[in-house]
Each structure stands twice: as structure tokens, then as C-alpha cells.
Amino acid sequence: MLSYLRVMDETDLDWVMAVEKRCQRQPWSRDGFVRALHQGLNFVICDADDRRLGYSCLLPVLDELHLLNITVAAEYQGQGIGKQTMQALFSRFEGTQYAVMLLEVRKSNKAARALYQSVGFEQDGIRKNYYLVEDGSREDAILLSKRLG
After folding, report:
1. CB of 45 closer than 8 Å to CB of 1
2. For residue 108, what are the domain limits?
3. What angle do CA 90, 94, 97 make, to 5 degrees?
């Protein structure tokens, strides 16, 4: 279903915010996305008919890409779009100055962890008590990385 990644811009933010609020346990704020637009590499995931399927936000730091957010809209989840998106991101940055992609994922997020493992990410460590949980407690983050190129 995924056809391409296009650069996200401010005209996408209303849609992105609606998807973020529906799909994320702790959604980013609009200001967070505005900052991401000015500081990072942000894409809207589109199909051949230009339907928006999801989005990704990456922060470049020297030769690293930190994947901050990847979200597939609820109505398109479970169709392999996350995996296709990861592969599209790897292709997009192949042969660039970026040597590695990094991310954190909730320890409890088994679906995301399985996705990242399936595309070659390896566990580098754990960040204790990184994520806030709805009940006010904290959850560990699993640190993952994948060499690019």
C-alpha cells in the first residue's frame, strides 16, 4: 500500500495531530511537531492515491538519525505499512552521511519491538523509568539501533 514518503509541512499538522491523539498513549503537542518541522527530517507516509497513511519524525545529530516518532493511522494499522515505512526510510538515507538510526521504544510495546527487530534493529540497552504511564508510574525504554548503508 505504501507508495512514497513526502516531506511533512505545516499544512499536514491538523491531520497529524488528529492521528497522534487517536494512536498515541501520550501524544505529542502541536508545538512538539512544529519544533520537529524546524529541527528534523519529517515525512508523511502516502499511498499511490496520495492518501496520508501515517508520519515519521527523525532528528539528525552528526552521523546519527534518531527516530522520534513513527505512527500509522489507526485505519491502516496491521497492513505492513510500518515495515514498509522503515524500509523506505533506510533507502532514503542510504549513501548519506548518516551511519546509524537510533530509537527508544516502550518495553511493553511488543508490536513495535517486533517490527524493529524484523527490520534489523538491535538492542543496545535500557533507559530505566523513561516513559510515563497513565497511572503515574514509569516504564523502561528499550534502546535500539541499526547501522545504515
Report:
1. no
2. 2-147
3. 115
What CATH code is carried by the domain that includes residue 31? 3.40.630.30
Kindly state the cell numbers that stand for 136: 503515574
Q: Are strands 122-132 and 138-147 parallel, antiparallel or unpaired?
A: antiparallel
The whole-model pTM stands at 0.93
- Beta strand spans in the chain (E): 2-7, 41-47, 52-61, 64-72, 100-106, 122-132, 138-147
Number of domains the chain is built from: 1
Task: For residue 93, give the C-alpha cell.
Answer: 538515507
Name the residues annotated as catalytic. Answer: 104, 116
Dump pLDDT digits (tens) for 53-63: 999 999 999 99
Helices of type H across 1-149: 13-23, 30-39, 81-93, 110-118
Confidence of residue 149 (pLDDT cuts 50, 70, 90): confident
Query: What does residue 39 show for φ and ψ, rounded to 5 degrees?
Result: -115, -15
> CA 5, CA 68: separation in Å to the nearest integer?
16
Residue matched to cell numbers 489507526: 74
Cβ 142 vs Cβ 126: under 8 Å: yes
Closest CA to 126 of 138, 114, 111: 138
